[in-house]
Amino acid sequence: MRFDPEQEELRRTVRTLLERTAGGDVWRLLAEQVGAHSLAIPEEFGGAGFSVVETHVVVEELGAALAAPGFLSTALAAQAILAADSADAKTALLPGIADGHVRATVAWGEEFQTAAESSDDGTWSVAGSQEHVLDGAEADLFVVPARVVDGGGSRLGLFAVTAGDAAVLPVETVDPNRPQAVVRFQRSPARLLSADAAPVLDRILDLACVMISAEQVGGAQRAFDLTLAYAKQRVQFGRPIGSFQAVKHRLADLYTLLESARSASYAAAFAAASGHEVGVAASRAKAYCSEAFSTIAGEAIQLHGGIGITWEHPIHWYFKRAHATAQLFGTPAWHRRRYARAVGLAA
């Protein structure tokens, strides 16, 4: 599980861009200077033709900087369109995402509260609502799973709805850098992406867990770096607190936890690219990285002491991100159960 020289150069490029443009238009610069939005989109649809591994590299750096949260949701929406059945939709929708002009997200939740119906002329519309849609207020395009009733039964289809045809209500969350929204559809015109959304959503859930684990590893690394630097600078009883054995032990434990989480996340990224046991690797990474990030961020607050709970120090943002991302796309406990079933350990 090693990144090749091109992938490491991509990492350095994104990191340098983020350092130079703190507070700037990161989304636009990622598109214009890196082409980050196009990485995992095939060339035939306006992309660069790389894989989700390159996207993983970008998301890890964005997680460290707590920057461009909409990148993750747009990348997932693009992969949902790619995994769906409609060639026309891919041709129409993916180029705009690849060049950074279209922001997209997947409007799904624990329950599917949307329904779709077709008219006599073959067009579709979607009605209902979804809560906790990531980056919903900034999205130009929604990828929407919706129930389709036909022949006395129902199935789950996948549709694309433009933001202008939906009502969006921003929602305040514990992590203001990861915005969410309630999105309501009232017979909104929709484009059919797939008549059978179940396998597509399984794929997107796995990719979501892989990408979230990348973000968590990036955030955990930055929280650890901030804490290590503080331990070297903060003087107590005439010496840096990092020189005390108890603090050294705690930092060593955090570093071990961080590297273990990194290994789980990287394994999931390469599994997603190869298609080999991606569900197992994704759930393992999501469960482990969620708890590792929460532990590291919590210990970072403790080791910073009083300064760690002030608005002036950035460490509290990582604490909030850790606990918010732990709940996204399934809790650690849910993914441990999913992992256990996949490997035959469930009772």
Automatic annotation (TrEMBL):
<feature type="domain" description="Acyl-CoA dehydrogenase/oxidase C-terminal">
    <location>
        <begin position="205"/>
        <end position="343"/>
    </location>
</feature>
<dbReference type="InterPro" id="IPR037069">
    <property type="entry name" value="AcylCoA_DH/ox_N_sf"/>
</dbReference>
<keyword id="KW-0285">Flavoprotein</keyword>
<keyword id="KW-0274">FAD</keyword>
<comment type="similarity">
    <text>Belongs to the acyl-CoA dehydrogenase family.</text>
</comment>
<dbReference type="InterPro" id="IPR013786">
    <property type="entry name" value="AcylCoA_DH/ox_N"/>
</dbReference>
<keyword id="KW-0560">Oxidoreductase</keyword>
<dbReference type="InterPro" id="IPR009100">
    <property type="entry name" value="AcylCoA_DH/oxidase_NM_dom_sf"/>
</dbReference>
<dbReference type="InterPro" id="IPR009075">
    <property type="entry name" value="AcylCo_DH/oxidase_C"/>
</dbReference>
<dbReference type="Pfam" id="PF02771">
    <property type="entry name" value="Acyl-CoA_dh_N"/>
</dbReference>
<dbReference type="InterPro" id="IPR036250">
    <property type="entry name" value="AcylCo_DH-like_C"/>
</dbReference>
<dbReference type="InterPro" id="IPR046373">
    <property type="entry name" value="Acyl-CoA_Oxase/DH_mid-dom_sf"/>
</dbReference>
<dbReference type="Pfam" id="PF00441">
    <property type="entry name" value="Acyl-CoA_dh_1"/>
</dbReference>
<feature type="domain" description="Acyl-CoA dehydrogenase/oxidase N-terminal">
    <location>
        <begin position="12"/>
        <end position="100"/>
    </location>
</feature>
<protein>
    <submittedName>
        <fullName>Acyl-CoA dehydrogenase family protein</fullName>
    </submittedName>
</protein>
